[in-house]
Design goal:
Length: about 325
Protein backbone atom coordinates (compact mmCIF):
# COMPACT_ATOMS: atom_id res chain seq x y z
CA UNK A 1 0.00 0.00 0.00
CA UNK A 2 1.08 3.57 -0.58
CA UNK A 3 0.34 6.19 2.10
CA UNK A 4 0.04 9.95 1.71
CA UNK A 5 0.08 12.74 4.26
CA UNK A 6 -3.24 14.47 4.88
CA UNK A 7 -2.60 18.12 4.07
CA UNK A 8 -0.32 19.74 6.65
CA UNK A 9 -1.05 17.15 9.33
CA UNK A 10 1.07 14.31 10.63
CA UNK A 11 -1.55 11.76 9.57
CA UNK A 12 -0.98 9.44 6.63
CA UNK A 13 -3.79 7.62 4.89
CA UNK A 14 -3.69 4.72 2.46
CA UNK A 15 -4.35 5.90 -1.10
CA UNK A 16 -7.26 3.45 -1.16
CA UNK A 17 -9.74 3.76 1.71
CA UNK A 18 -12.81 1.55 2.13
CA UNK A 19 -16.28 3.04 2.50
CA UNK A 20 -19.28 1.33 4.11
CA UNK A 21 -22.14 3.27 2.49
CA UNK A 22 -23.42 0.15 0.66
CA UNK A 23 -22.86 -3.59 1.26
CA UNK A 24 -22.31 -3.47 5.05
CA UNK A 25 -25.85 -2.97 6.32
CA UNK A 26 -28.31 -5.31 7.99
CA UNK A 27 -29.71 -6.27 4.53
CA UNK A 28 -26.24 -7.43 3.38
CA UNK A 29 -24.25 -10.65 3.86
CA UNK A 30 -22.35 -10.27 7.15
CA UNK A 31 -19.79 -12.91 6.16
CA UNK A 32 -18.87 -11.08 2.95
CA UNK A 33 -18.73 -7.78 4.86
CA UNK A 34 -16.36 -9.33 7.40
CA UNK A 35 -14.12 -10.80 4.70
CA UNK A 36 -13.87 -7.44 2.91
CA UNK A 37 -12.91 -5.55 6.08
CA UNK A 38 -10.33 -8.13 7.16
CA UNK A 39 -8.86 -8.50 3.66
CA UNK A 40 -8.67 -4.71 3.31
CA UNK A 41 -6.89 -4.32 6.64
CA UNK A 42 -4.45 -7.11 5.77
CA UNK A 43 -3.65 -5.29 2.51
CA UNK A 44 -2.88 -2.02 4.32
CA UNK A 45 -6.26 -0.35 3.82
CA UNK A 46 -6.36 0.98 7.37
CA UNK A 47 -8.93 3.74 6.78
CA UNK A 48 -12.65 2.90 6.96
CA UNK A 49 -15.22 5.56 6.12
CA UNK A 50 -18.66 5.45 7.73
CA UNK A 51 -21.62 7.72 8.51
CA UNK A 52 -24.44 7.50 11.01
CA UNK A 53 -27.01 6.75 8.29
CA UNK A 54 -25.15 4.02 6.36
CA UNK A 55 -27.09 0.77 6.10
CA UNK A 56 -29.82 0.06 5.34
CA UNK A 57 -31.25 0.14 7.95
CA UNK A 58 -29.61 3.42 8.93
CA UNK A 59 -27.04 2.80 11.65
CA UNK A 60 -26.55 -0.87 10.81
CA UNK A 61 -23.25 -0.35 8.94
CA UNK A 62 -21.78 1.17 12.12
CA UNK A 63 -23.20 -1.68 14.21
CA UNK A 64 -21.79 -4.30 11.85
CA UNK A 65 -18.44 -2.54 11.63
CA UNK A 66 -18.19 -2.44 15.44
CA UNK A 67 -18.96 -6.14 15.60
CA UNK A 68 -16.43 -7.00 12.89
CA UNK A 69 -13.78 -4.95 14.70
CA UNK A 70 -14.45 -6.65 18.02
CA UNK A 71 -14.55 -10.15 16.54
CA UNK A 72 -11.59 -9.87 14.15
CA UNK A 73 -9.41 -6.86 14.79
CA UNK A 74 -9.82 -6.21 18.50
CA UNK A 75 -6.12 -5.70 19.18
CA UNK A 76 -5.59 -3.45 16.14
CA UNK A 77 -7.59 -0.30 17.04
CA UNK A 78 -4.43 1.86 17.06
CA UNK A 79 -3.57 0.70 13.54
CA UNK A 80 -6.98 1.68 12.15
CA UNK A 81 -8.33 5.09 11.14
CA UNK A 82 -12.13 5.38 11.43
CA UNK A 83 -14.26 8.22 10.18
CA UNK A 84 -17.94 8.89 10.62
CA UNK A 85 -20.33 11.73 9.79
CA UNK A 86 -23.66 13.32 10.64
CA UNK A 87 -25.91 15.62 8.66
CA UNK A 88 -28.32 13.53 6.61
CA UNK A 89 -31.69 12.31 7.91
CA UNK A 90 -31.17 9.79 10.69
CA UNK A 91 -33.94 9.85 13.30
CA UNK A 92 -37.46 11.31 13.42
CA UNK A 93 -38.16 14.84 14.53
CA UNK A 94 -36.38 18.10 13.89
CA UNK A 95 -33.09 17.13 15.57
CA UNK A 96 -32.25 14.00 13.57
CA UNK A 97 -31.18 15.78 10.40
CA UNK A 98 -29.08 18.77 9.29
CA UNK A 99 -25.94 20.51 10.51
CA UNK A 100 -27.05 21.87 13.90
CA UNK A 101 -24.93 21.51 17.02
CA UNK A 102 -27.74 19.43 18.56
CA UNK A 103 -27.70 16.93 15.67
CA UNK A 104 -23.92 16.62 15.41
CA UNK A 105 -23.24 16.10 19.10
CA UNK A 106 -26.11 13.65 19.67
CA UNK A 107 -25.15 11.80 16.51
CA UNK A 108 -21.50 11.48 17.47
CA UNK A 109 -22.55 9.92 20.80
CA UNK A 110 -24.89 7.51 19.00
CA UNK A 111 -22.20 6.49 16.47
CA UNK A 112 -19.68 5.73 19.22
CA UNK A 113 -22.31 3.64 20.99
CA UNK A 114 -23.20 1.69 17.81
CA UNK A 115 -19.55 0.96 16.99
CA UNK A 116 -18.56 0.30 20.59
CA UNK A 117 -15.73 2.83 20.36
CA UNK A 118 -14.38 5.45 22.77
CA UNK A 119 -13.49 7.77 19.91
CA UNK A 120 -13.44 8.05 16.11
CA UNK A 121 -10.46 9.39 14.24
CA UNK A 122 -12.37 11.90 12.12
CA UNK A 123 -15.84 13.29 12.66
CA UNK A 124 -17.30 15.07 9.63
CA UNK A 125 -20.13 17.46 9.04
CA UNK A 126 -21.71 15.32 6.30
CA UNK A 127 -23.19 18.30 4.45
CA UNK A 128 -24.06 21.96 4.59
CA UNK A 129 -27.82 22.05 5.23
CA UNK A 130 -28.38 25.46 3.67
CA UNK A 131 -29.55 27.07 6.93
CA UNK A 132 -27.32 26.42 9.95
CA UNK A 133 -24.62 29.08 10.31
CA UNK A 134 -21.17 27.72 9.53
CA UNK A 135 -20.01 28.97 12.95
CA UNK A 136 -22.54 26.72 14.74
CA UNK A 137 -21.57 23.60 12.79
CA UNK A 138 -17.83 24.21 12.97
CA UNK A 139 -17.98 24.98 16.72
CA UNK A 140 -19.78 21.66 17.23
CA UNK A 141 -16.89 19.91 15.41
CA UNK A 142 -14.36 21.81 17.56
CA UNK A 143 -16.18 20.75 20.73
CA UNK A 144 -16.43 17.11 19.62
CA UNK A 145 -12.66 17.09 19.11
CA UNK A 146 -12.06 18.90 22.42
CA UNK A 147 -14.21 16.32 24.23
CA UNK A 148 -11.95 13.55 22.92
CA UNK A 149 -14.77 11.85 21.00
CA UNK A 150 -12.95 12.51 17.72
CA UNK A 151 -9.29 13.16 17.08
CA UNK A 152 -9.83 15.35 14.00
CA UNK A 153 -12.57 17.26 12.17
CA UNK A 154 -13.62 17.08 8.53
CA UNK A 155 -16.13 18.57 6.10
CA UNK A 156 -18.02 16.79 3.36
CA UNK A 157 -19.63 18.23 0.21
CA UNK A 158 -19.35 21.83 1.39
CA UNK A 159 -20.18 24.36 -1.34
CA UNK A 160 -17.13 25.99 -2.83
CA UNK A 161 -18.06 29.44 -1.44
CA UNK A 162 -18.21 28.15 2.17
CA UNK A 163 -15.20 25.84 2.08
CA UNK A 164 -12.66 28.54 2.96
CA UNK A 165 -14.83 29.88 5.79
CA UNK A 166 -14.90 26.41 7.36
CA UNK A 167 -11.11 26.12 7.21
CA UNK A 168 -10.67 29.59 8.72
CA UNK A 169 -13.08 28.93 11.60
CA UNK A 170 -11.57 25.57 12.46
CA UNK A 171 -7.99 26.85 12.24
CA UNK A 172 -8.82 29.86 14.42
CA UNK A 173 -10.06 27.41 17.06
CA UNK A 174 -6.94 25.21 16.85
CA UNK A 175 -8.76 22.29 15.23
CA UNK A 176 -7.58 22.46 11.61
CA UNK A 177 -9.71 20.66 9.04
CA UNK A 178 -7.98 17.32 8.49
CA UNK A 179 -10.03 16.16 5.53
CA UNK A 180 -12.33 17.57 2.87
CA UNK A 181 -14.51 14.95 1.24
CA UNK A 182 -16.02 15.48 -2.23
CA UNK A 183 -17.58 13.32 -4.93
CA UNK A 184 -14.98 13.01 -7.70
CA UNK A 185 -14.34 10.63 -10.57
CA UNK A 186 -13.67 10.71 -14.30
CA UNK A 187 -17.43 11.38 -14.62
CA UNK A 188 -17.54 14.06 -11.88
CA UNK A 189 -14.56 16.34 -12.40
CA UNK A 190 -15.87 19.65 -11.00
CA UNK A 191 -14.05 19.46 -7.62
CA UNK A 192 -10.78 18.88 -9.48
CA UNK A 193 -11.09 21.67 -12.06
CA UNK A 194 -10.80 25.45 -11.65
CA UNK A 195 -14.19 27.16 -11.88
CA UNK A 196 -15.20 30.45 -13.43
CA UNK A 197 -17.05 32.89 -11.18
CA UNK A 198 -20.03 33.80 -13.36
CA UNK A 199 -20.52 37.21 -11.63
CA UNK A 200 -17.01 38.51 -12.17
CA UNK A 201 -15.57 36.20 -14.80
CA UNK A 202 -12.65 35.35 -12.47
CA UNK A 203 -11.16 31.89 -12.46
CA UNK A 204 -11.42 30.33 -8.99
CA UNK A 205 -9.36 27.45 -7.72
CA UNK A 206 -10.91 24.00 -7.58
CA UNK A 207 -12.12 22.58 -4.26
CA UNK A 208 -9.08 20.29 -4.33
CA UNK A 209 -6.64 23.16 -4.90
CA UNK A 210 -8.23 25.22 -2.12
CA UNK A 211 -7.95 22.28 0.27
CA UNK A 212 -4.28 21.88 -0.64
CA UNK A 213 -3.49 25.58 -0.17
CA UNK A 214 -5.29 25.59 3.16
CA UNK A 215 -3.47 22.52 4.43
CA UNK A 216 -6.46 20.15 4.41
CA UNK A 217 -6.30 16.65 3.01
CA UNK A 218 -8.66 15.92 0.10
CA UNK A 219 -10.47 12.61 -0.25
CA UNK A 220 -12.69 11.57 -3.17
CA UNK A 221 -15.86 9.51 -2.72
CA UNK A 222 -17.66 7.39 -5.33
CA UNK A 223 -14.44 7.27 -7.41
CA UNK A 224 -15.97 4.61 -9.68
CA UNK A 225 -19.22 6.58 -10.09
CA UNK A 226 -20.95 3.83 -8.08
CA UNK A 227 -19.77 1.17 -10.54
CA UNK A 228 -20.35 3.02 -13.85
CA UNK A 229 -16.57 3.38 -14.23
CA UNK A 230 -16.00 -0.37 -14.24
CA UNK A 231 -16.76 -2.99 -16.85
CA UNK A 232 -19.89 -3.95 -14.89
CA UNK A 233 -22.55 -2.19 -16.99
CA UNK A 234 -21.00 -2.58 -20.45
CA UNK A 235 -23.43 -5.34 -21.38
CA UNK A 236 -26.52 -4.10 -19.54
CA UNK A 237 -27.54 -3.96 -15.90
CA UNK A 238 -26.55 -7.20 -14.14
CA UNK A 239 -28.73 -8.72 -11.44
CA UNK A 240 -27.40 -7.95 -7.98
CA UNK A 241 -25.65 -4.78 -9.16
CA UNK A 242 -26.20 -1.55 -7.26
CA UNK A 243 -28.39 -0.22 -10.08
CA UNK A 244 -30.58 -3.34 -9.94
CA UNK A 245 -30.99 -3.44 -6.16
CA UNK A 246 -33.96 -1.72 -4.53
CA UNK A 247 -31.66 -0.56 -1.69
CA UNK A 248 -28.97 0.90 -4.01
CA UNK A 249 -28.50 4.63 -4.56
CA UNK A 250 -27.53 4.19 -8.23
CA UNK A 251 -30.70 4.74 -10.24
CA UNK A 252 -31.30 2.87 -13.50
CA UNK A 253 -31.83 6.33 -15.05
CA UNK A 254 -28.19 7.17 -14.25
CA UNK A 255 -26.96 4.26 -16.39
CA UNK A 256 -27.26 6.36 -19.54
CA UNK A 257 -26.18 5.32 -23.06
CA UNK A 258 -23.69 8.26 -23.07
CA UNK A 259 -22.01 7.04 -19.88
CA UNK A 260 -21.89 3.44 -21.10
CA UNK A 261 -20.41 4.55 -24.46
CA UNK A 262 -17.77 6.53 -22.58
CA UNK A 263 -17.06 3.59 -20.25
CA UNK A 264 -16.62 1.34 -23.30
CA UNK A 265 -14.03 3.72 -24.83
CA UNK A 266 -12.26 4.14 -21.48
CA UNK A 267 -12.26 0.37 -21.03
CA UNK A 268 -10.28 0.09 -24.29
CA UNK A 269 -7.68 2.59 -23.04
CA UNK A 270 -7.46 0.67 -19.74
CA UNK A 271 -7.03 -2.61 -21.61
CA UNK A 272 -4.10 -1.14 -23.58
CA UNK A 273 -2.53 -0.11 -20.24
CA UNK A 274 -2.97 -3.67 -18.98
CA UNK A 275 -5.50 -2.53 -16.35
CA UNK A 276 -9.19 -3.03 -15.61
CA UNK A 277 -11.35 0.06 -16.08
CA UNK A 278 -11.84 0.20 -12.29
CA UNK A 279 -8.06 0.26 -11.79
CA UNK A 280 -7.51 2.97 -14.41
CA UNK A 281 -10.33 5.09 -12.95
CA UNK A 282 -8.75 4.98 -9.49
CA UNK A 283 -5.23 5.59 -10.82
CA UNK A 284 -6.50 8.60 -12.82
CA UNK A 285 -7.83 10.22 -9.62
CA UNK A 286 -4.69 9.43 -7.64
CA UNK A 287 -2.46 11.19 -10.18
CA UNK A 288 -3.94 14.56 -9.15
CA UNK A 289 -1.67 16.59 -6.92
CA UNK A 290 -3.49 17.18 -3.63
CA UNK A 291 -5.48 13.92 -3.74
CA UNK A 292 -4.81 12.19 -0.42
CA UNK A 293 -6.93 9.08 -0.88
CA UNK A 294 -9.97 7.74 -2.72
CA UNK A 295 -12.79 5.95 -0.88
CA UNK A 296 -13.87 2.88 -2.77
CA UNK A 297 -16.95 0.77 -2.17
CA UNK A 298 -16.94 -2.96 -2.90
CA UNK A 299 -19.55 -5.71 -2.82
CA UNK A 300 -17.09 -8.65 -2.89
CA UNK A 301 -13.54 -9.56 -1.99
CA UNK A 302 -12.84 -10.08 -5.71
CA UNK A 303 -13.69 -6.40 -6.40
CA UNK A 304 -11.48 -5.32 -3.53
CA UNK A 305 -8.61 -7.38 -4.89
CA UNK A 306 -9.13 -5.97 -8.38
CA UNK A 307 -9.05 -2.43 -6.99
CA UNK A 308 -5.96 -3.09 -4.86
CA UNK A 309 -4.04 -3.98 -8.03
CA UNK A 310 -4.48 -0.32 -9.11
CA UNK A 311 -1.22 0.32 -7.30
CA UNK A 312 0.67 -1.75 -9.87
CA UNK A 313 0.41 1.15 -12.34
CA UNK A 314 -0.32 4.69 -11.17
CA UNK A 315 1.46 6.53 -13.98
CA UNK A 316 0.02 7.76 -17.29
CA UNK A 317 1.68 8.77 -20.53
CA UNK A 318 0.69 12.11 -22.11
CA UNK A 319 -0.90 10.11 -24.91
CA UNK A 320 -3.09 8.17 -22.50
CA UNK A 321 -4.19 11.32 -20.69
CA UNK A 322 -5.06 13.01 -23.96
CA UNK A 323 -7.07 9.98 -25.06
CA UNK A 324 -8.97 9.94 -21.72
CA UNK A 325 -9.66 13.70 -21.92
CA UNK A 326 -10.99 13.27 -25.44
CA UNK A 327 -13.50 10.66 -24.23
CA UNK A 328 -14.57 12.73 -21.23
CA UNK A 329 -14.97 15.99 -23.15
CA UNK A 330 -16.83 14.48 -26.09
CA UNK A 331 -19.70 13.02 -24.08
CA UNK A 332 -22.56 14.56 -22.12
CA UNK A 333 -21.76 12.72 -18.94
N1 LIG B 1 -19.55 12.20 1.94
C1 LIG B 1 -20.57 11.71 1.30
O1 LIG B 1 -21.64 12.33 1.21
C2 LIG B 1 -20.46 10.38 0.63
C3 LIG B 1 -21.41 10.02 -0.37
C4 LIG B 1 -21.26 8.78 -0.99
C5 LIG B 1 -20.20 7.94 -0.65
N2 LIG B 1 -19.33 8.31 0.34
C6 LIG B 1 -18.24 7.39 0.76
O2 LIG B 1 -17.56 6.88 -0.36
C7 LIG B 1 -17.59 5.45 -0.32
C8 LIG B 1 -17.53 4.86 -1.71
O3 LIG B 1 -18.68 5.26 -2.46
P1 LIG B 1 -19.23 4.28 -3.57
O4 LIG B 1 -19.59 2.99 -2.93
O5 LIG B 1 -20.23 5.03 -4.35
O6 LIG B 1 -17.87 4.06 -4.41
P2 LIG B 1 -17.54 3.53 -5.87
O7 LIG B 1 -16.20 2.91 -5.70
O8 LIG B 1 -17.71 4.61 -6.85
O9 LIG B 1 -18.63 2.41 -6.21
C9 LIG B 1 -18.62 1.19 -5.55
C10 LIG B 1 -19.38 0.14 -6.38
O10 LIG B 1 -18.73 -0.05 -7.63
C11 LIG B 1 -18.72 -1.42 -7.97
N3 LIG B 1 -17.33 -1.89 -8.02
C12 LIG B 1 -16.31 -1.58 -7.18
N4 LIG B 1 -15.17 -2.14 -7.57
C13 LIG B 1 -15.46 -2.84 -8.70
C14 LIG B 1 -14.69 -3.63 -9.57
N5 LIG B 1 -13.39 -3.81 -9.38
N6 LIG B 1 -15.30 -4.20 -10.64
C15 LIG B 1 -16.63 -4.02 -10.86
N7 LIG B 1 -17.42 -3.28 -10.06
C16 LIG B 1 -16.83 -2.69 -8.98
C17 LIG B 1 -19.54 -2.14 -6.91
O11 LIG B 1 -20.88 -2.14 -7.36
P3 LIG B 1 -21.89 -3.36 -7.09
O12 LIG B 1 -22.34 -3.14 -5.69
O13 LIG B 1 -22.94 -3.15 -8.12
O14 LIG B 1 -21.13 -4.65 -7.25
C18 LIG B 1 -19.39 -1.22 -5.72
O15 LIG B 1 -20.43 -1.37 -4.78
C19 LIG B 1 -18.87 5.14 0.46
O16 LIG B 1 -18.89 3.83 1.00
C20 LIG B 1 -18.79 6.20 1.53
O17 LIG B 1 -17.88 5.80 2.53
C21 LIG B 1 -19.43 9.51 0.95
Amino acid sequence: MEYRYCGNSGIQLPVLSLGLWHNFGSVDDFGVATDMIVKAFDAGVCHFDLANNYGPVPGSAEENFGLILRENLRSHRDEIFISTKAGHEMWPGVYGNGSSRKNLIASCNQSLHRMGLDYVDVFYSHRYDGVTPIEETMQALVDIVRSGKALYAGISKYPRDLQLKCYEYLRAHDVPCLLSQYRASMFVREPLLPITDSDHGNTMHSAMQVAKEEGSGFIAFSPLAQGLLTDKYLKGIPQNSRAAKSTGFLQVSQVTPERIDAARLLNEIARRRGQSLAQMSLAWLLRHEGMTSVIIGTSSVAQLEDNLRTLDNLTFSEEELTAIDAVLSSQSL
